[in-house]
Amino acid sequence: MIERDKLDRINELARKERTDEGLTSEEKNEQESLRKQYLKSFREGLKSQLEGIQFVNNDGEDVTPDKIRQAQQESGLRDKEGNIITSEDK
């Protein structure tokens, strides 16, 4: 997750950008860099959350998409057969 001071700076630059003063070229570069950091952090967090979800249909069958299932296996949340590893299994 991105640090609070960086998020505050992103917002500060966005507010300044909307004023008549605008941003200097240095501030525009800083804004772009901070936004890239924010998006990277956001995407990593979302990926982590999705990897922790097991999708089930109304019949209770695991219908987790293969791409997520594979990521779960790589991170140790599923065994080689594709079954969710619970705390009891460890």
TrEMBL record:
It comes from the Bacteria. It is found in: Cytoplasm. InterPro entries: DUF896. Residues 1-33, 57-90 are annotated as: Disordered. GO terms for cellular component: cytoplasm. Its main location: cytoplasm. Keywords: Cytoplasm. Residues 76-90 have a biased composition (Basic and acidic residues). The keyword Nucleotidyltransferase does not apply. Gene3D superfamilies: Helix hairpin bin (1.10.287.540). The keyword Cytoplasm applies. Belongs to the UPF0291 family. PANTHER family: UPF0291 PROTEIN BC_1827, UPF0291 PROTEIN CBO2609/CLC_2481. This is UPF0291 protein FNV33_06100. It comes from Dolosigranulum pigrum.
